[in-house]
Design a protein that fits this description.
The chain is α+β, with helices and mostly antiparallel strands. It is built from 4 helices and 6 strands, in the order E-E-E-H-H-E-E-E-H-H. The radius of gyration is 15 Å and the shape is globular. The model has no long low-confidence stretch (mean pLDDT about 90).
Length: about 120
Amino acid sequence: MPALPSAIHLHKASKALALTYGGTTYTLPAEFLRVHSPSAEVQGHGKPILQFGKLGVGLNKVEPAGQYALKLTFDDGHDSGLFTWDYLYELCTRQDALWADYLAELHKAGKSRDPSESAVRLML
């Protein structure tokens, strides 16, 4: 049986989703959830597609998807990923490592979290 949170709270003002497991509450920022969406748009077909420019993205809605997942609707229109209970628990418990890996990938690709910023490389 997947790990089920004992509480789920959407915090629209702080743009985060809080999940409680046992006595521990994990707060997952909407940007973190958006760039780690399990959707094909993000995960690709065998090779993940780096998401960038998602700083400031928020969550509009959280709803159950059967008994096994949550469907998250982001304010940038993304709503196709179903976050299973197991995947949400993994995101909670591995948040620091996953975020560090994401930031390293962004840097390597010359991309930014800021949607109004785009890196331009001059080839001289």
